[in-house]
Amino acid sequence: MELILRDEKIEDANAVTLLLQAAFADHPHSQNQEFRLVNALRDANALSLALVVQKNEVLFGAVHASDVQIVAAGQTLPGRFCCIAPLAVRPEQQRQGIGAQLMVAALLRLREQGYSACVLVGDAAYYNRFGFYQQAGLSSPSIPDEYVLVLNWQAAPVVGEIHYHPAFAELE
């Protein structure tokens, strides 16, 4: 049976939690709280996107996105912006292209939904392949700028501070 990429369903919630816990258990830059973020965003009906990859009824990966605002000089930038967080693949299925498949599908869907840009916090060496880059003047509270990345689909640069859904603050 082949991999199936689909929208997350409400009945996937427990399996997604277990997937996120497994994926981030040994990650050096994680406190393994990503499942709490996704659950809080889901409970607040604040997920802009939730995709999973499964095979034989087992979830192998998931990606989530939520709306953010970009604020510069006290003004909210015009446009529609989202943050991709988290992207996760079961440890035993990593390095098989599942994360890339999820990212490509997520970015296509988000662009179709009319987003101006996507931001994320991650390793540029990995996310550059999807078009993400560091933008001078784009920042995220308490995150080193080298990990703050953007994929911009609009003409104007995305500069300012990223303001996340309140669920993100619960993780600090």
Automatic annotation (TrEMBL):
Alphabetized GO MF terms: acyltransferase activity, transferring groups other than amino-acyl groups
Its source organism is Chitinibacter bivalviorum
Tell me which residues make up the N-acetyltransferase domain.
Answer: 3-154
What InterPro entries does its record include? Acyl_CoA_acyltransferase, GNAT_dom
PROSITE patterns to which the protein is assigned, alphabetical: GNAT (PS51186)
Identify the keywords attached in UniProt to this record, alphabetized: Transferase
The identity of this protein, by name, is N-acetyltransferase
